[in-house]
Amino acid sequence: MKIVTNQIGRVPENALNVAKYCSYGFPTVIKSYPLLDGKPFPTLYWLTCPFLRDEISKMESDGWIKRYEEMISKSSEFSNLQIKAHELAKKDVIDLLQDDDLKIKFTGGMGGIRNFNHVKCLHMHVAYHLGGIENPVGRSVLSKISQTECKSGICLEWSI
Fold it and tell me: What's the DSSP call for residue 34?
């Protein structure tokens, strides 16, 4: 987890494993345990790739969160796919937990979102998509990025 720690700037205390690697063999997405210090941690998948995070940040700065929320509100097909992704994410969290009392506390979907028409963060949607939960926001974000990984293996410096 040394590389992930350097990628995100802190120790991922509740990381379970790497869910997705880039072509250079470095973590792109980690899967986290849904509890941290005994409290709910709603983000199951975490985008760690610094290159991809930067590219997605540009989209957020350009207003894409609001655009995706408009797409969800205007398209029943897009909305239904997004709701399905939230439900799958919730199921994955509940399946990981052993304590039935804790399972009751997890009512949100991806990233703990309770209002499925809300797009919390594009990074989170891409992380879930790359982690294996197909969702239209994550898929669309990736389709709008011309290059989805660096050309130089920038994480190499942290592996030495």
Answer: S
Q: Work out whether strand 45-47 and strand 35-36 pair parallel, antiparallel, or are unpaired.
A: unpaired
Q: How many CA atoms lie within 13 A of 57 on its CB side?
A: 8
Read off the DSSP letter of residue 112.
Answer: G
**pTM across the whole model:** 0.94
Cα–Cα distance measured from residue 4 to residue 79, given in angstroms and rounded to the nearest whole number: 33
| 74-106 pLDDT tens trace | 999 999 999 999 999 999 988 888 776 566 677
Q: Distance from first CA to last CA of the chain, Å, rounded?
A: 13
- Residue whose C-alpha is closest to residue 69's, from 138, 137, 142, 140: 137
Provide CB contacts within 8 A for 72, sequence distance 6+: 78, 79, 82, 116, 117, 119, 137
Tokens found for residue 67: 């655009």
Residue 81: half-sphere exposure toward Cβ, Cα within 13 Å = 16
Backbone dihedral region for residue 119 (phi beyond 0: left; psi -120 to 50: alpha; all else: beta): beta
> Can you give the pLDDT at residue 158?
80
Query: Would you kindly state where each structural domain of the chain is located, as residue ranges?
Result: 2-159
